[in-house]
Structures are given as C-alpha cells and as structure tokens.
Amino acid sequence: MDGAAILEQLMTVAGREDPYPLYEQARALGAVTPAGEALLMTVGYREVNEVLRDGTFRVPDAELRGRWEEGFADHSSKVMFSRSILERNEPDHSRMRSLIASVFTARRIAALEPAVVEAVHRLLDDMADQGADGTPVDFMDAFAYRLPVGVICELLGVPAADRHLFRALASDLTVSLEMIAEDSELAAADEAAEELAGYFTALAARRRADPRDDLVSALVQVADADHGRLSGSELLANLVLLLVAGFETTTNLLGNGLTLLLDHPEAAAGLRDGTVTPAGLNDEVLRFDSPVQLTSRISLANGQRVGETEAPYGSMAVLLIGAANRDPLRYEHPERFDPTRRDSRPLSFGGGSHYCLGAQLARLEGAVALPALLTRFPELAPAGPPVRRDRLVLRGYQSLPITIR
Ligand code: HEM
C-alpha cells in the first residue's frame, strides 16, 4: 500500500478500530510519506514533535478551511471550533491563550485535588452499590464519563443538575473533529453545537448578572472588561471547547487506562505495590493508546519541510500522534505496555504553543482515579469484551463492562 491507501484505510471502520498495524505500515515507508494531494502523513516522533513546536506551521483556521474544505461555513459545529483557541493562529491565538490561561491557572487546578478525590470516592461508592451482587457495571458510564464531566462542570460553574445533558451532545459535536464524517453525523454535530451555544449563552448571562467563583464568571468578566480581547462568539466557542475537551479526552484516558490494566495484571500489581507510580501509569497509557490520535498543521511558507520531506505551500501535515508515540527510534520496545518507562514524554497533549491547557487537570484525574479504583475493587475483572467508539481522532471506548467482586 502507498501512503494514500494507508490513510484511506485509517478512515475505514477496521482502521479506526485498530489503527496500529496501519501506522507500522506507514512507518515502513518512512517517518513522513506523501499521502495523496497535498497531504503528508507523519508518523515519526521527532518529526511530529518538530512540526508541533514550529510556529510557522499553522493550525487549519476558519480562513484556511473556508478556502479548502467544501461546505465548511455551512456547519455550525465546525465554525464553532474555528472560533475557539484550538483553531486560531497568531495573533488571535496568543490573545485568547493568555486570557484563558489567566483564569485556568495551575493554582486553580491544584486546588481542585480534594474535590477530585471526593468525587472519585463518591463514584466508587455508587459502583459498589450497583455491582455488589456481581451484576456487571459499565465502567464508561458509571465512572469514566462521570468523573471528568463532574470536575470540568465544577470548574466552569455548570450546575450539577445539568450535567447529564452533555454526554450525548459532546459525542455528537466531536464528530466534526474527525477527518471524515457522514452528512447525518455532521447534521447532529451542528445541532449539538447550537444547543451547547444556547446553553452557555444563558449561563454566561446568569453569571454576568450574578458572578460566582467559577470559570464562566471569570471569563465573562475578562471578556466584558475589554471587549476587543474576547468577543461574545469567541467566549461561547471557548466555553464549549473547555467543556467538551475537558471530558471527552479524559474519559478516554480512564477507559483506555483500565482496559490496559485489565490486559496487564503485572502493571496493576505494580500500581498496588508501588513499583508503578500513578504518573508513570498516566504517561504509559497516554503513550500506548492516546485519547487523541492525530492533529494537523498546514505549511504556508516556502521551503518548509516535515522532517526531510518538502512541504509545499498549502500542504497539510497529518500528525499521527498515536504512531509517533510508538516510534522505535524514540522508545525501546514501543509495542510493550510498560508503565515503568522513564522520560517517556508522549506527544498525546500536543506540543508548542497549542499544548493542551488541560494536561495538568487530566493527569490529576488519572492519577487519583485509576489507583483508587484498583484499591477499592481488588477483584475487579472484565465482564465481556469492551466496545470501541467508532472514531479515529478521539480514541476510546463506548462501553467497558466489568464486575467488581
Ligand atoms: C487525557 C486528556 C487530554 C488529552 C489527551 C488532550 C489532548 C490535547 C491535544 C493533543 C491538544 C493540542 C491539539 C493541537 O495542537 O492541535 C489539546 C489542546 C487543548 N486541550 Fe486538551 N487534552 C486532554 C484534556 C483536556 C482537558 C481536561 C481540558 C480542559 C479542561 C483540555 C483543554 C484543551 C484546550 C483548551 C486546548 C487548546 C489549547 C490551544 O489551542 O492553545 N484538554 N489537548
């Protein structure tokens, strides 16, 4: 298969289910391989890392998508992401990043730890009730979704009574981040975008009138204080992004992590006896089965290269993070799940100026949740095959049945 055929295969149901053999076929062709018109499929750790850190490559923003992506402007889901920090280039990106970072601070995240610990134990209590008589429990539904959605909603100031609304909406919305999607899926994504925008318009209005100690209030205040720094539609887009990015990915860190622990009892034993640290486990789960498998950048300067390969004006580097994380030039025995690795630094949170704003929060949730789960349920076992979500970009499980005794 040539590069284009491999990329095409990656977008099939089978490719989405297990992209790793295809990544290795791509690697056999080189760290960077042309994959059709103006596409460079990039699987090398060094090459992906370099492009992420090279500010002269652009994220595909509204202007670029409008030029190259047919029907882009007709999809409110795509337009919404393009107004958020994720899909902005300079100078807009720095303007938004400094504003959001000023309220989404390391101190605020660190201060959340007791609330995360409490939420974990509350959810484990609920799972204990559900599964006490040996009834299978779906870990994705009972825990992996609920923890991150609870934490990000707490941080944003979304009332507890509304949190059940978001699982289906976020799942519908994030289809628009995939490289390809059916028209019906995009229609559902657009509806979800509009519903979420409506929700946050109302919440922002309530917090404007009656501010609290939460992120929505803080962002409304910075937006209002200087209108030029964050417009109303940008405020909304970023609130929706924070909500969705805050749990879709972390849910998958927890689900992918538990599956790997079930498949590797030695890693679970290591976590129990302290030879595996929670941080080491996080890093290895992120490396081995990254919740975000790919992102992309566009070359708009003459003479640019991705690794050794020329990247002509307008070409897109498809950065396969999940493949880079298994590059044998960077990792010894990359196919082994080994949470005792040192200096792992997977690229799962990206790199450079768009490096994930929520990395600290996601790591905190993973480091508290997975060890607490194993300690609480020493008999935890699979109760049937886990079912993957049919996605390439955001990789995780739809359901993961377990018994806890
Ligand atoms: C395991 C969990 C997570 C993973 C694997 C992950 C992954 C990523 C990646 C790969 C990017 C960069 C995309 C690119 O450069 O194109 C990113 C950006 C971002 N993430 Fe995360 N993320 C996670 C959790 C979170 C959480 C919990 C939040 C928020 C509460 C969050 C908020 C964001 C935001 C706002 C950006 C955009 C930053 C920018 O463009 O400057 N993420 N994330």
Automatic annotation (TrEMBL):
Q: Which InterPro entries match?
A: Cyt_P450 (IPR001128), Cyt_P450_B (IPR002397), Cyt_P450_CS (IPR017972), Cyt_P450_sf (IPR036396)
* CDD domains recorded: CYP164-like
Source domain of life: Bacteria
Recorded hits in Gene3D superfamilies, A to Z, give: Cytochrome P450 (1.10.630.10)
Which keywords does UniProt give here? Heme, Iron, Metal-binding, Monooxygenase, Oxidoreductase
Q: Which Pfam families match?
A: p450
Spell out the family assignment given in the record's similarity comment: Belongs to the cytochrome P450 family.
Quote the protein name from its UniProt record.
Cytochrome P450
Q: Per the UniProt entry, what species is this protein from, by scientific name?
A: Kitasatospora kazusensis
